Amino acid sequence: MTRAFMLLILCGYLILAWGFATRTPPWQAPDEPAHYNYIRFIATTGRLPVLQPGDYDQAYLSEIVSRGFPPELPIDPLRYEFHQPPLYYLLMTPLFLLFGGALLPLRLFSAALGALQILLAFAAVRRLFPEQPAWGIGVTAVFAFLPQHVAMASSVNNDALAETLILGLWVWIAHELHRHQPRQAWIGGLLLGAGFLTKTTVYPMALVALVAVLARAAAEGQPWPERLRRLFPWLLPALAIGALWWIRNGVVYGWPDLLGLQQHDRVVVGQPRTAEWIARYGWMATLDRFWTFTFQSFWGQFGWMGVVLEARWYLLFAWLTVLGFLGLALHLGRQRQGSPLWGIRGILLLLALGLTVGTYLWYNLSFVQHQGRYLFPALLPIALGLVIGWSTWAQGSAAKSLGIACGLGVIVLGIAGVIHGDLPWFPVGLLTGTGLIVWLSARFPALRPYLGLALCFGAFALDLHLALHVIPSAFY
User: Fold this and answer.
1) Which of 99, 437, 438, 454 could form a disulfide with 105 if both were Cys (CB 3.0 to 4.6 A apart)?
2) What angle do CA 474, 22, 92 make, to 5 degrees?
3) Cα distance between residue 338 and residue 344, in whole Å
4) DSSP code for 374
């Protein structure tokens, strides 16, 4: 049954990825033109680009985005991603040359990486928590049907490779925790080194991996010299590969700008800065925008953050978020030491999430970048937390309590609707559906896999509607 579910989820994702890749108008994905220009530069010159003053023009960017990328405004001036590490773009260059620079094949390559992410996410969770086989299926469903994630995976963006490598590292970290094999540890170092050549969002995984190696050695009672020795197969390949890029940047941009980020800050003159935004709009408006845009663009806010969905869909996403994390808290409170999350596995997941969230907050201290997609490097712990939370509500007394709460909510909304002459059908349907699902799950445990499959079909239908109708209609 697991294979059948995985096949259905993967097929559903491939259909959605094709829909997003073909129906999203050219360049109507965040930063896609700048990533495309990076690939084109390598293909046409045979060299890596250097980020220089003039590669970012805020006025031109605002105009071309607001006008929907008309033919008379070329994308050539959009070169502000030229500071990025090169691995993703080098892999895309043969496709660019083979298909004459056509955009769709490049998008489909990224979408193929998204399919690989689904498989790696499943493998990582199954290796991390072999005692909970259902968690792996649930996490893959989140990866496959989270609308914003599918949309981003179907565009030209180096996030596709970065997230793939992060998940590959999770698989190898799980392998390390399960059984240390010295002759194979260097594979983790190669994955980490490839991450250093892909995007800085992979860098936090270096700390996660090192903590995992040390924890495994400590659990075996190894002395500190042996614990440190086990780090070498991870560190040496990773540092050797990363040094190729860091030395190049040191030569091009000068010490100590080994990542090109200082050059980026100097070049992006005119990009909205947080301090200026607060001075203009105030603290409360800035925080409100931060929370609203982060939440909406994590679940689904498309184009260049300009395609906002109907309020009812964000209500659905909010309900799923609340249920997920309240259920996770209930799971941790009830299970206590019995939960597999209590221990090194949970610590590593929490560390990865904390580093990603901290990086996101730090970035927004300087620039106004309220985009929830920047949390996708930590999608594995986020998805796992949601899945555990949702499944908790489907069991025992938790299901009964949630069912009662949903029933009371329907009654209150019904009475309020009658009084005001406007019955809120969507919230009523949401509560009714939730109550019915948890009741069936608790009353008939054998139905749980099929109820989960039905929810996947619902998510697939929503995503397909977004890909085929909502996004194209916003631009045509």
Assistant:
1) 99
2) 120
3) 13
4) G
